[in-house]
Design brief:
Number of strands: 12
Radius of gyration: 23 Å
Organism: Curvibacter cyanobacteriorum
Oligomer: single chain
Strand content: 5-15%
Order of helices and strands: HEEHHEEEEEEHEEHHHEEHHHHHHHHHH
Number of helices: 17
Distance between the termini: 35 Å
Pfam family, one: SelO
Largest sheet: 6 strands, antiparallel
Family: Belongs to the SELO family.
Bound molecules: adenosine-5'-triphosphate, magnesium ion
Cofactor: Mg(2+); Mn(2+)
Function: Nucleotidyltransferase involved in the post-translational modification of proteins. It can catalyze the addition of adenosine monophosphate (AMP) or uridine monophosphate (UMP) to a protein, resulting in modifications known as AMPylation and UMPylation.
Structural class: alpha+beta
């Protein structure tokens, strides 16, 4: 039976007060970067879910969550003393094309916690950057963003975090009429490639430099005086962002995560996963899988993600060019992506296979297993977890059962088992999650939530916060997707 405590944490101390000071470095930079504004209230807000763990990470008292004050503040209906909300301006390349000015069209920054984490509401009303949009987010997409943020964190993948999701009966028009919701999310910074692209495109080099300096001072201080880039802090910054992005992409690819909308306005300057829209964790392993039904050309197919990230880094290089000075230096600063990404990916795959150190012949075994999974459309998460169990228990039959082409599996497995030193099962169980946020799991929790039952969201949050643990009694959440899962259509509509 259930070993999870599904009850949301109740406030133990109703007087637990949140901070009284909510500064914003972005506001301090000056008016070119953002616009001060108030969130637009929503009627009759209610909790959908919240994360005491995130509250703790932000230095907020978890006891404050669950209070009516928190509900109002995190829906955008009230402000705490000291909060001076704002929306920031950015631009970007969308689906490979320059899109011009975008900006926080439905996100509003409330300020920074004492730890320097930005707290932002998504879906909290129109801003000067909303263009034709309504400034809102629907319950469906907000639950997906909330759960996936915490799932990624549980997997050890850099990401924005999600403190809460609140709902309202207010209608929101998408393909059908849905209801509004707000995600309160947090990151050390929500700055994107597009923030720098914005000022470069306008040839506003003063603001471009000011923002790049801010990013270096706050997040990449080593770039000021980098041994490889003496006197070239902006080249050092480009390389540092590029290498963090390479490391992030290696983690996405290794876990089977498809982002779905890798536009430059969704690329974090800190190498975080940002903007959970039409994302998907792979079910059957299809390297060319396209998770976003709006992506008709397959630009953001799973196996294209590492190259797209590199393409996006080129856009960032273009934006930083006026500060870097010459093209050769900018290109040189991007060079390491080509070695850092494959090395990081191979290291992740080695850990999944249970190997601590690289040994000659590993690349062949790694390529071999990926080919086997692709050719047989094997369920990606279940394969790795069963392989981990197989090594732990010395019985490979359950993993063999997953592969239609048994002779091919046997040939690979023989070489795998002959590898010396052998696989470490503990490392594998720490590297291959039992639980990922599959589309159908999210979908079931969303349907429940649309009927005012939020227990499915709670259950998933508890499982996904600790995806490498066994969670006895919850095997169904680690099982194959049902047939209807492949008919779920996730698009940019959110
Ligand atoms: N309903 C909406 N109302 C206003 N602006 C919107 C809306 N949906 C998207 N936008 C804006 O369109 C642009 C691209 O949207 P995209 O889907 O990448 O971002 P998002 O999901 O809104 O948010 P984020 O990237 O902050 O997680 C952004 O500038 C975004 O703010
Ligand atoms: Mg976005």
């Amino acid at each position: 039976m259930s070993t999870l405590d599904l009850a949301p944490a109740r406030p133990s101390d109703a007087s637990a007060a949140p901070p009284a000071n909510w500064p914003s470095r972005l506001a301090q930079l000056g008016p070119a970067f953002s616009t001060a504004l108030q969130p637009t209230p929503l009627p009759q807000p209610h909790w959908v879910a919240y994360s005491p763990a995130v509250a703790q990470a932000l230095g907020l008292d978890p006891a404050w969550l669950g209070t009516d004050e928190a509900l109002q503040v995190l829906t955008g209906n009230a402000l705490l003393p000291g909060m001076k909300p704002l929306a920031s301006v950015y631009s970007g390349h969308q689906f490979g094309v320059w899109a011009g000015q975008l900006g926080d069209g439905r996100a509003i920054l409330l300020g920074e916690t004492p730890q320097g984490h930005e707290l932002q509401l998504k879906g909290s009303g129109r801003t000067p950057y909303s263009r034709g949009g309504d400034g809102r987010a629907v319950l469906r997409s907000s639950i997906r963003e909330f759960l996936c943020s915490e799932a990624m964190h549980g997997l050890g993948i850099p990401t924005s975090r999600a403190l809460s999701v609140t709902g309202s009966p207010a209608p929101v028009r998408r393909e059908t009429i849905e209801t509004a919701a707000v995600v309160a999310r947090s990151a050390p910074s929500f700055l994107r490639f597009g923030h720098l692209e914005h000022f470069a495109a306008r040839n506003d080099l003063v603001s471009l430099r000011q923002l790049a300096d801010e990013v270096i001072d706050q997040h990449y201080p080593d770039c000021r005086d980098h041994p490889r880039w003496p006197g070239q802090p902006f080249a050092a910054l480009l390389e540092a962002v590029s290498e963090r992005t390479a490391a992030l992409l290696a983690q996405w690819q290794a876990v089977g995560f498809c982002h779905g909308v890798m536009n430059t306005d969704n690329m974090s300057l800190l190498g975080l996963t940002l903007d959970y829209g039409p994302f998907q964790f792979l079910d059957a392993f299809d390297p060319g899988h396209i998770c976003n039904h709006s992506d008709t050309q397959g630009r953001y197919a799973h196996n294209k993600q590492p190259n797209i990230a590199y393409w996006n880094l080129f856009c960032l290089a273009q934006a930083l060019l006026p500060l870097i000075g010459d093209e050769d230096t900018a290109v040189a600063a991007l060079e390491s992506y080509k070695s850092v990404y494959p090395a990081a990916f191979e290291a992740r795959l080695r850990a999944k296979l249970g190997w601590h150190q690289a040994v000659e012949g590993d690349t062949e075994l790694i390529e071999g297993v990926l080919q086997l999974l692709a050719q047989n459309r094997v369920d990606y998460t279940i394969f790795w977890r069963r392989l981990s169990q197989a090594v732990a228990q010395g019985d490979f039959e359950p993993v063999r059962d997953l592969v239609l082409d048994r002779p091919a599996f046997d040939a690979w497995c023989q070489r795998y088992q002959a590898r010396a030193p052998g696989a470490d099962a503990d490392l594998m169980l720490r590297s291959n999650p039992k639980f990922v946020l599959r589309n159908h799991l999210g979908e079931l929790a969303i349907r429940q939530a649309q009927n005012h039952d939020f227990s499915g969201v709670q259950t998933l949050l508890k499982l996904l916060e600790r995806p490498f643990e066994e969670h006895p009694g919850f095997e169904a959440y680690a099982d194959f997707p049902p047939d209807w899962a492949s008919s779920i259509e996730i698009s940019c509509s959110s």
